[in-house]
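The aim of this short unit is practical: by the end, you should be able to scan a pair of folded records and say something sensible about each. We start with the first protein, listed as its amino acid sequence and then its structure tokens.
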Amino acid sequence: MIRFSLICEHEHEFEAWFRSNDDFDIQKKRGFVDCPSCGSHKVEKALMAPAVSTSRKQEKVALAMGEAQKQALAQLKVLAEKVRENADYVGDKFAEEARKIHFGETDARGIYGEATPEEAQSLVEDGVEFMPIPSFPDDRN
């Protein structure tokens, strides 16, 4: 699975999971990729920071930042914190809880937690709407 940052013609930014780069291209060509905000099918890949794996199997993100990027990162950190403050942490039960909410088996509420790429793909296939919350180096202890 690969996660792409996408942007539509109206500059709405969002993320989506695909099996491969070719899978994205095929789905886009068939008109299956659309903006969740406005429904536009004119969607392109947005610029993403590369993930660099270390020998310890931890992901590290590298991004050379100017002032605009620093401000955007600070805003993103505030937004991610607000999301966490207003949602229940469900740990590794995220996929299970998200599916229960989606199918009306439990009360709708904001949740966050962890999911494997396979669980995320399964949620996508079930039509469950979710998005990754970024984590930052200073979020981890």
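Turning to the second protein, read its sequence before its tokens, just as you did above.
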Amino acid sequence: MTPPEAPEDGSHQPRKPPAASVCVSEPLIILKKRSDFLKAARARRQGTSSMMVQARKRAPDEGSGIRVGFTCSKKVGNAVARNRAKRRLREAARAVLRVHGHDGWDYVLIGRAEVTANRPHDALLGDLRYALRKIHSDRK
């Protein structure tokens, strides 16, 4: 019986991990504390047909990077529907926030009932881009 790290070709050399890609950017930081969600709720917001986006600029002592949180209320549906909507919001954030998000900001994406889970992917991305453009151009 060969150890699990042995390659399939029968050689006894350990496998080398795959080389890291040079185009991988650092991952988004996920908001988990309720206080972070509440702070974002008191800041800027922009609604679209498929989601609500709340955003807040953090103080310089709170760190850098783009942080994002996701939430769906029970109005969205049962647990399966809420998880599907959040998965789609995560994918949209992963695709859009690295390009259009600003460093030092927190974003909270809130799913809408029966729309977030069923909206075409390109339209979902467009909605998030639109919301970010409005949030960052609007200087209240």
